[in-house]
Amino acid sequence: MAFLTLIFVLAFLFGIGYLLRKLKFFRNKWNWMWLLFVSLIIYFLGNLTPIYRTIELRFEKLPEEFSNYATIGDLDSVFLNSNFKAIKLESIYREEAVRINDSIIILKTHEDGEGEHKTNVSWYKINPNGELIDSLTFKNEYLVNIDSYLVNIDKSYYVTWLRDGDTLKKPFDLMEEGKLIDEAQSKEFLKDAAYSNYDYFYENKNDYDREKRFKKMIVYKDNEWFQFNTSDDLYLSVNEYFANDDLNFEDRGKLVHFQKEAWYGDRFPDFNLYINGKDPNLWKGTAYLNLELENELIKIQHYSKMYEDGDARPMPLDIYENPNKSFYILRIESGKAHTFYVLKNKL
Predict the structure, then answer these.
(1) Where does the pLDDT of residue 218 fall: very low under 50, low under 70, confident under 90, or very high at 90 and above?
(2) 3-state SS string over 173-189?
(3) pTM for this predicted structure
(4) Which residue of 93, 194, 203, 269 has the fewest CB atoms within a 10 Å radius of its CB?
Protein backbone atom coordinates (compact mmCIF):
# COMPACT_ATOMS: atom_id res chain seq x y z
CA MET A 1 0.00 0.00 0.00
CA ALA A 2 2.86 2.40 0.79
CA PHE A 3 4.32 1.72 -2.66
CA LEU A 4 0.97 2.46 -4.36
CA THR A 5 0.65 5.65 -2.36
CA LEU A 6 4.11 6.77 -3.48
CA ILE A 7 3.26 5.98 -7.11
CA PHE A 8 0.05 7.99 -6.83
CA VAL A 9 1.78 11.00 -5.28
CA LEU A 10 4.46 10.98 -7.98
CA ALA A 11 1.86 10.61 -10.74
CA PHE A 12 -0.22 13.39 -9.19
CA LEU A 13 2.76 15.73 -9.01
CA PHE A 14 3.76 14.82 -12.55
CA GLY A 15 0.26 15.59 -13.80
CA ILE A 16 0.14 18.91 -11.96
CA GLY A 17 3.63 19.72 -13.21
CA TYR A 18 2.68 18.95 -16.80
CA LEU A 19 -0.39 21.18 -16.52
CA LEU A 20 1.51 24.02 -14.97
CA ARG A 21 4.24 23.68 -17.55
CA LYS A 22 1.67 24.17 -20.26
CA LEU A 23 0.61 27.29 -18.40
CA LYS A 24 4.27 28.38 -18.27
CA PHE A 25 4.16 28.25 -14.50
CA PHE A 26 7.73 27.03 -14.16
CA ARG A 27 9.45 29.97 -15.78
CA ASN A 28 9.95 31.23 -12.24
CA LYS A 29 12.03 28.83 -10.12
CA TRP A 30 10.26 29.98 -6.96
CA ASN A 31 7.04 28.52 -8.29
CA TRP A 32 8.68 25.10 -8.14
CA MET A 33 9.50 25.58 -4.52
CA TRP A 34 5.98 26.80 -3.69
CA LEU A 35 4.46 23.76 -5.39
CA LEU A 36 6.69 21.40 -3.45
CA PHE A 37 5.98 23.23 -0.18
CA VAL A 38 2.19 23.16 -0.68
CA SER A 39 2.30 19.45 -1.60
CA LEU A 40 4.24 18.64 1.54
CA ILE A 41 1.82 20.64 3.69
CA ILE A 42 -1.16 18.79 2.20
CA TYR A 43 0.51 15.43 2.77
CA PHE A 44 1.51 16.37 6.32
CA LEU A 45 -1.97 17.58 7.29
CA GLY A 46 -3.57 14.49 5.75
CA ASN A 47 -1.29 12.21 7.79
CA LEU A 48 -1.12 14.18 11.00
CA THR A 49 -2.61 11.36 13.11
CA PRO A 50 -0.42 8.50 11.82
CA ILE A 51 2.69 10.70 12.07
CA TYR A 52 1.81 11.53 15.68
CA ARG A 53 1.12 7.85 16.46
CA THR A 54 4.45 6.81 14.93
CA ILE A 55 6.33 9.37 17.02
CA GLU A 56 4.38 8.31 20.10
CA LEU A 57 5.53 4.70 19.64
CA ARG A 58 9.17 5.82 19.81
CA PHE A 59 8.67 6.61 23.48
CA GLU A 60 6.89 3.35 24.36
CA LYS A 61 9.00 1.36 26.83
CA LEU A 62 7.91 -1.87 28.48
CA PRO A 63 7.72 -1.51 32.28
CA GLU A 64 10.10 -3.87 34.05
CA GLU A 65 7.27 -5.55 35.97
CA PHE A 66 5.99 -7.19 32.77
CA SER A 67 9.30 -8.67 31.61
CA ASN A 68 8.64 -12.07 33.22
CA TYR A 69 5.23 -12.76 31.65
CA ALA A 70 5.03 -16.08 29.78
CA THR A 71 3.72 -16.30 26.23
CA ILE A 72 0.41 -18.01 25.78
CA GLY A 73 2.18 -20.89 24.00
CA ASP A 74 4.66 -21.45 26.86
CA LEU A 75 2.35 -22.18 29.77
CA ASP A 76 3.81 -25.65 30.32
CA SER A 77 6.77 -24.16 32.16
CA VAL A 78 4.47 -21.87 34.15
CA PHE A 79 2.39 -24.75 35.52
CA LEU A 80 5.49 -26.86 36.08
CA ASN A 81 6.61 -24.31 38.66
CA SER A 82 3.15 -23.59 40.11
CA ASN A 83 0.90 -25.15 42.73
CA PHE A 84 -1.18 -26.76 39.99
CA LYS A 85 -0.91 -30.17 38.42
CA ALA A 86 -1.71 -29.71 34.73
CA ILE A 87 -3.06 -32.20 32.20
CA LYS A 88 -2.56 -30.82 28.70
CA LEU A 89 -4.78 -31.88 25.77
CA GLU A 90 -4.17 -30.40 22.32
CA SER A 91 -6.39 -30.42 19.25
CA ILE A 92 -6.01 -29.21 15.68
CA TYR A 93 -9.63 -28.00 15.74
CA ARG A 94 -11.84 -25.95 18.03
CA GLU A 95 -13.53 -28.46 20.26
CA GLU A 96 -16.47 -29.04 22.56
CA ALA A 97 -16.30 -29.53 26.30
CA VAL A 98 -19.45 -31.26 27.52
CA ARG A 99 -21.00 -32.34 30.80
CA ILE A 100 -22.28 -35.90 30.55
CA ASN A 101 -23.75 -36.00 34.07
CA ASP A 102 -22.95 -34.72 37.56
CA SER A 103 -19.89 -36.97 37.68
CA ILE A 104 -18.32 -36.84 34.21
CA ILE A 105 -17.01 -34.08 31.94
CA ILE A 106 -15.84 -34.85 28.42
CA LEU A 107 -13.08 -33.11 26.46
CA LYS A 108 -12.65 -33.83 22.77
CA THR A 109 -9.53 -33.50 20.60
CA HIS A 110 -8.44 -34.16 17.03
CA GLU A 111 -5.01 -34.96 15.65
CA ASP A 112 -3.76 -35.64 12.14
CA GLY A 113 -4.40 -39.19 11.01
CA GLU A 114 -2.91 -41.37 8.33
CA GLY A 115 -3.43 -40.05 4.82
CA GLU A 116 -4.69 -36.79 3.41
CA HIS A 117 -7.69 -35.21 5.14
CA LYS A 118 -7.70 -37.99 7.76
CA THR A 119 -7.92 -37.30 11.49
CA ASN A 120 -7.97 -39.24 14.73
CA VAL A 121 -10.60 -38.14 17.24
CA SER A 122 -10.36 -38.73 21.00
CA TRP A 123 -12.61 -38.21 23.98
CA TYR A 124 -11.36 -37.88 27.57
CA LYS A 125 -13.37 -38.39 30.75
CA ILE A 126 -12.70 -36.06 33.69
CA ASN A 127 -14.16 -36.93 37.10
CA PRO A 128 -15.32 -34.42 39.79
CA ASN A 129 -11.80 -34.36 41.26
CA GLY A 130 -10.22 -33.21 38.00
CA GLU A 131 -8.67 -36.61 37.28
CA LEU A 132 -8.42 -38.14 33.81
CA ILE A 133 -10.09 -41.53 34.31
CA ASP A 134 -10.56 -42.85 30.77
CA SER A 135 -10.13 -42.06 27.08
CA LEU A 136 -11.22 -43.43 23.73
CA THR A 137 -9.71 -42.81 20.28
CA PHE A 138 -11.04 -43.53 16.79
CA LYS A 139 -8.46 -43.46 14.00
CA ASN A 140 -9.31 -42.03 10.59
CA GLU A 141 -13.01 -41.82 11.43
CA TYR A 142 -15.51 -39.02 11.83
CA LEU A 143 -17.83 -39.22 14.83
CA VAL A 144 -20.09 -36.73 16.58
CA ASN A 145 -21.44 -36.60 20.12
CA ILE A 146 -25.24 -36.62 20.19
CA ASP A 147 -26.81 -36.77 23.63
CA SER A 148 -23.77 -38.67 24.98
CA TYR A 149 -23.75 -41.17 22.12
CA LEU A 150 -20.74 -41.28 19.77
CA VAL A 151 -22.22 -41.56 16.29
CA ASN A 152 -20.63 -42.45 12.96
CA ILE A 153 -23.20 -41.68 10.28
CA ASP A 154 -20.97 -42.78 7.40
CA LYS A 155 -20.43 -46.27 8.85
CA SER A 156 -23.90 -46.53 10.43
CA TYR A 157 -23.04 -47.22 14.05
CA TYR A 158 -23.08 -45.65 17.51
CA VAL A 159 -21.11 -46.20 20.73
CA THR A 160 -22.39 -45.75 24.30
CA TRP A 161 -18.92 -45.29 25.90
CA LEU A 162 -19.68 -41.77 27.09
CA ARG A 163 -22.61 -43.11 29.07
CA ASP A 164 -21.47 -46.50 30.32
CA GLY A 165 -17.87 -47.15 29.20
CA ASP A 166 -18.91 -49.70 26.54
CA THR A 167 -16.73 -49.39 23.40
CA LEU A 168 -18.76 -51.82 21.27
CA LYS A 169 -19.85 -50.40 17.92
CA LYS A 170 -23.59 -50.94 17.72
CA PRO A 171 -25.33 -50.75 14.29
CA PHE A 172 -28.41 -48.61 13.78
CA ASP A 173 -31.67 -50.56 13.69
CA LEU A 174 -32.45 -50.95 9.99
CA MET A 175 -36.14 -50.33 9.29
CA GLU A 176 -38.08 -52.45 6.77
CA GLU A 177 -34.98 -54.60 6.19
CA GLY A 178 -33.41 -51.81 4.17
CA LYS A 179 -36.17 -51.55 1.57
CA LEU A 180 -36.89 -48.08 0.14
CA ILE A 181 -39.56 -46.28 2.14
CA ASP A 182 -42.06 -43.85 0.63
CA GLU A 183 -42.54 -40.22 1.67
CA ALA A 184 -45.47 -40.72 4.03
CA GLN A 185 -43.77 -43.48 6.03
CA SER A 186 -40.49 -41.51 6.05
CA LYS A 187 -42.18 -38.47 7.58
CA GLU A 188 -43.76 -40.69 10.20
CA PHE A 189 -40.37 -42.07 11.21
CA LEU A 190 -38.92 -38.52 11.36
CA LYS A 191 -41.79 -37.15 13.42
CA ASP A 192 -40.71 -35.95 16.89
CA ALA A 193 -37.11 -37.05 16.31
CA ALA A 194 -34.62 -35.51 18.74
CA TYR A 195 -32.00 -35.68 15.99
CA SER A 196 -32.01 -36.70 12.35
CA ASN A 197 -29.58 -36.56 9.46
CA TYR A 198 -28.88 -38.25 6.16
CA ASP A 199 -26.13 -39.64 3.97
CA TYR A 200 -25.94 -41.30 0.55
CA PHE A 201 -25.11 -44.78 -0.60
CA TYR A 202 -24.75 -46.49 -3.98
CA GLU A 203 -25.57 -49.91 -5.34
CA ASN A 204 -21.96 -50.17 -6.48
CA LYS A 205 -19.47 -48.05 -4.55
CA ASN A 206 -16.87 -48.56 -7.27
CA ASP A 207 -18.94 -46.85 -9.92
CA TYR A 208 -20.46 -43.66 -8.47
CA ASP A 209 -21.23 -42.08 -11.84
CA ARG A 210 -23.30 -44.88 -13.30
CA GLU A 211 -25.05 -46.44 -10.35
CA LYS A 212 -28.18 -44.96 -8.89
CA ARG A 213 -27.75 -43.05 -5.65
CA PHE A 214 -29.99 -43.59 -2.62
CA LYS A 215 -30.44 -41.74 0.64
CA LYS A 216 -30.10 -43.24 4.10
CA MET A 217 -31.84 -41.40 6.91
CA ILE A 218 -30.44 -41.57 10.45
CA VAL A 219 -32.91 -40.93 13.28
CA TYR A 220 -32.51 -40.65 17.05
CA LYS A 221 -35.82 -40.84 18.87
CA ASP A 222 -36.86 -42.14 22.28
CA ASN A 223 -33.24 -43.04 23.12
CA GLU A 224 -32.98 -45.33 20.10
CA TRP A 225 -31.00 -45.07 16.87
CA PHE A 226 -32.38 -46.36 13.61
CA GLN A 227 -31.90 -46.02 9.87
CA PHE A 228 -34.21 -46.22 6.89
CA ASN A 229 -33.56 -45.84 3.18
CA THR A 230 -35.33 -43.69 0.60
CA SER A 231 -34.88 -42.63 -2.99
CA ASP A 232 -32.39 -39.85 -3.68
CA ASP A 233 -34.97 -37.39 -5.07
CA LEU A 234 -37.19 -37.52 -1.95
CA TYR A 235 -36.92 -34.27 0.00
CA LEU A 236 -37.20 -34.71 3.76
CA SER A 237 -36.67 -32.11 6.45
CA VAL A 238 -34.11 -33.14 9.10
CA ASN A 239 -33.16 -31.89 12.54
CA GLU A 240 -29.34 -31.82 12.43
CA TYR A 241 -28.82 -29.70 15.53
CA PHE A 242 -28.69 -31.22 18.97
CA ALA A 243 -27.77 -29.09 21.99
CA ASN A 244 -25.37 -30.94 24.27
CA ASP A 245 -24.76 -29.69 27.80
CA ASP A 246 -21.70 -27.58 26.98
CA LEU A 247 -19.52 -26.28 29.80
CA ASN A 248 -19.75 -22.60 30.64
CA PHE A 249 -16.33 -21.01 30.12
CA GLU A 250 -15.70 -17.49 31.43
CA ASP A 251 -13.23 -14.71 30.71
CA ARG A 252 -11.50 -14.47 34.08
CA GLY A 253 -8.26 -12.76 33.11
CA LYS A 254 -7.55 -9.08 33.81
CA LEU A 255 -5.75 -6.96 31.21
CA VAL A 256 -3.12 -5.02 33.15
CA HIS A 257 -1.04 -3.54 30.33
CA PHE A 258 -0.93 -3.21 26.55
CA GLN A 259 2.43 -2.55 24.93
CA LYS A 260 1.87 -0.68 21.67
CA GLU A 261 4.19 -1.79 18.85
CA ALA A 262 2.63 -0.65 15.58
CA TRP A 263 -0.13 1.71 14.44
CA TYR A 264 -2.66 0.79 11.75
CA GLY A 265 -5.05 3.53 10.73
CA ASP A 266 -6.19 6.07 8.14
CA ARG A 267 -3.53 7.49 5.85
CA PHE A 268 -3.64 10.00 3.03
CA PRO A 269 -4.09 9.26 0.21
CA ASP A 270 -5.95 5.95 0.62
CA PHE A 271 -6.99 3.95 -2.47
CA ASN A 272 -8.28 0.82 -0.79
CA LEU A 273 -11.80 0.00 -1.99
CA TYR A 274 -12.70 -1.71 1.32
CA ILE A 275 -14.92 -4.25 -0.38
CA ASN A 276 -15.12 -6.29 2.85
CA GLY A 277 -15.47 -3.27 5.09
CA LYS A 278 -12.96 -1.01 6.80
CA ASP A 279 -11.23 -1.88 10.04
CA PRO A 280 -11.18 0.82 12.73
CA ASN A 281 -7.92 2.51 13.66
CA LEU A 282 -5.92 0.36 16.04
CA TRP A 283 -2.59 -0.53 17.58
CA LYS A 284 -1.00 -3.94 17.35
CA GLY A 285 1.17 -5.04 20.20
CA THR A 286 1.39 -7.28 23.25
CA ALA A 287 -1.35 -7.64 25.85
CA TYR A 288 -0.39 -8.57 29.41
CA LEU A 289 -2.93 -10.50 31.44
CA ASN A 290 -3.19 -11.52 35.10
CA LEU A 291 -5.17 -14.69 35.76
CA GLU A 292 -5.74 -15.35 39.46
CA LEU A 293 -6.57 -18.91 40.52
CA GLU A 294 -6.70 -19.83 44.20
CA ASN A 295 -4.52 -16.88 45.22
CA GLU A 296 -1.90 -17.80 42.61
CA LEU A 297 -1.23 -15.25 39.88
CA ILE A 298 -0.63 -16.62 36.40
CA LYS A 299 1.03 -14.01 34.19
CA ILE A 300 0.41 -14.30 30.44
CA GLN A 301 1.34 -12.20 27.41
CA HIS A 302 -0.09 -12.46 23.92
CA TYR A 303 0.20 -10.55 20.62
CA SER A 304 -3.05 -8.67 20.22
CA LYS A 305 -4.85 -5.48 19.14
CA MET A 306 -6.09 -2.34 20.89
CA TYR A 307 -8.49 0.15 19.33
CA GLU A 308 -8.41 3.93 19.63
CA ASP A 309 -11.07 3.93 22.33
CA GLY A 310 -8.84 1.75 24.51
CA ASP A 311 -10.86 -1.41 23.95
CA ALA A 312 -8.45 -4.34 23.59
CA ARG A 313 -9.17 -7.50 21.66
CA PRO A 314 -10.04 -10.27 24.16
CA MET A 315 -7.38 -12.79 25.05
CA PRO A 316 -7.93 -16.12 23.25
CA LEU A 317 -8.36 -17.97 26.53
CA ASP A 318 -11.16 -18.62 28.98
CA ILE A 319 -11.68 -20.86 31.99
CA TYR A 320 -14.18 -23.28 33.49
CA GLU A 321 -14.38 -23.68 37.26
CA ASN A 322 -15.77 -26.90 38.69
CA PRO A 323 -18.76 -26.23 41.03
CA ASN A 324 -16.96 -27.73 44.02
CA LYS A 325 -13.84 -25.70 43.06
CA SER A 326 -11.72 -28.85 42.94
CA PHE A 327 -10.28 -28.14 39.48
CA TYR A 328 -10.28 -25.76 36.51
CA ILE A 329 -10.18 -26.19 32.74
CA LEU A 330 -8.23 -23.53 30.89
CA ARG A 331 -9.11 -23.35 27.18
CA ILE A 332 -6.77 -21.58 24.76
CA GLU A 333 -7.68 -20.81 21.16
CA SER A 334 -4.98 -20.54 18.52
CA GLY A 335 -6.34 -19.98 15.02
CA LYS A 336 -8.73 -22.88 14.48
CA ALA A 337 -7.17 -25.03 17.22
CA HIS A 338 -7.82 -25.54 20.92
CA THR A 339 -5.53 -26.46 23.80
CA PHE A 340 -6.99 -27.55 27.13
CA TYR A 341 -5.26 -27.50 30.51
CA VAL A 342 -7.00 -29.39 33.30
CA LEU A 343 -5.64 -27.71 36.45
CA LYS A 344 -5.82 -29.30 39.88
CA ASN A 345 -4.12 -28.01 43.01
CA LYS A 346 -1.20 -30.23 44.02
CA LEU A 347 -1.87 -29.68 47.74
Answers:
(1) very high
(2) EEHHHHCECCHHHHHHH
(3) 0.81
(4) 203
